[in-house]
Request: fold
Amino acid sequence: MPRFSANLGFLWPERPLLERIEAAARAGFKAIELHWPYETPAESVRDACADHELLLLGLNTAIGDASKGEFGLAALSGRKYDFQASLDQAIAYAKISGASSIHVMAGVVAAGDRLRARAVLLENLVWASERASDFTLLLEPINQRDKPGYFYSTIGEAASLVREIAAPNIKIMFDIYHIGVSEGDILRRLEQHLPTIGHVQIAAVPSRVEPDAGEIAYSAIFKELDRLGYNGWVGCEYKPRAGTEEGLGWIPALGVSL
Reply:
């Protein structure tokens, strides 16, 4: 049976981060993952996780300048040192807070810049794999509907980078919601890419609410993860239809537990 972590970027969004950590523990989660926790001291997150016996899995690198439409820096030309600073920020926060993985955000790239952007991303990831050798670095394809122009939206694009870099600490973030929107054929892609999958995330397709709705049969997904021998965590990165607690009925409905 999969082990589920609470993604506190989306769950209990109305509460401050430390209260979200407490709420996740009260709901029965044993692990959490974060988006951009940098406004909360890493020591406070570490202590809250310890107090509530929660494992902190990971966090994201900074998005850059949101006013300019940035959503990550790793593939952006001319932003090498800004990217390096963002990774160093994530490493420092992860070391103190106890996180073991970092989602390296590639960013939004104009269509005409993609060839150059791939070379930039490769160079930055090679550097990052050495700089963050104690952490798992995750590459996540993000669908073009939600984030038009994001550098990669297919699992094949991310997998080709992982193969080319061939660093043991660079893995794929297999977000079933994004892959479902972009490509579908989830079961085959899980099996094909299992050796390089570092983390799995879930949400309904196409609505991104709790995983008991939409076109993805998550009960079949969970059985397939068991069959494949996936032993990592499954991140609950969905947007609750109403309150987070009210939406947790998907857990018994799909025959799983926390």
Notes: The CA atoms of residues 120 and 210 lie 36 Å apart. The first strand starts at residue 3 and ends at 7. The chain has a mean pLDDT of 97. The radius of gyration is 17 Å.
